[in-house]
Specification:
With 201 residues, this protein is α+β, with helices and mostly antiparallel strands. Helix content is 30%, strand content 19%. A three-stranded antiparallel β-sheet has the order 1-2-3. The chain has a two-stranded parallel ribbon with strand order 4-5. InterPro entries: RT_RNaseH_2.
């Protein structure tokens, strides 16, 4: 086992068993190879057990509720995660091809992390995470993906909302109309060129 170092490259490995659970690990990339930093596992819900194998492997994003996986957000170097499913590699690519909605939801949850999926075809029969995925720990936490997606979508519109507020304050006609609507004193301002188009007796 090794300590997590924000300056060193991090590799995220994940394994999903057929009907049991999920396991994931953080590895630190060193000159002598990969050193494990942290292991986690959890049981899949009844709904998740009916997912395709590709979607099950994408569920590791839900593991980021763990405090150690949250630390990926503070990495100064980009993290990577090998995957045998090329649909996971469509995360940040602007391409005509789109992954299934279930996977698309999961990869959106990683938009706040500088992470690069790496396609590695084939299966490693000596994967150390195989045991953890078949003997998972009970899941007690909550899925934070919805919160992450809402934050990402909201952040895209923050600039637009600020611009609308700023321009609204500069619009003298709009400000006059707002005042008339709030006070109801249309009669006193019906000859105002800015109010006249909106006033009718």
């Amino acid at each position: 086992m090794a300590y997590l170092s924000p300056a060193r490259p991090i590799v995220v490995r994940v394994e999903a068993s057929f009907l049991e659970g999920l396991s994931a690990d953080l590895f630190r990339n060193t000159g002598s190879g990969l050193q494990p930093v942290h292991f986690i596992s959890r049981t899949m819900t009844d709904t998740e057990k009916r997912y395709s194998q590709t979607e099950k492997d994408a569920l590791y994003i839900g593991q980021r509720t763990d405090s150690t996986f949250t630390s990926l957000e503070h990495q100064s170097s980009r993290s990577s995660h090998p995957t045998s499913h090329c649909s996971h590699c469509l995360k940040k690519e602007k391409t005509v091809m789109r992954p299934p909605l279930g996977i698309d939801k999961r990869v959106m949850g990683m938009q706040d992390v500088d992470s690069e999926p790496i396609y590695e075809p084939g299966k490693d029969n000596a994967d150390p995470l195989d045991y953890l995925s078949r003997h998972p720990l009970p899941e007690k936490g909550k899925d934070a993906i919805k919160s992450v997606i809402k934050y990402v979508l909201k952040a895209k519109h923050v600039v637009v909302e600020d611009q609308i507020k700023e321009e609204t304050c500069r619009d003298t006609q709009f400000q006059k109309l707002t005042a008339r609507i709030l006070t109801g004193d249309w009669e006193y301002h019906k000859k105002d060129p800015d109010i006249a188009p909106f006033y009718s007796e």
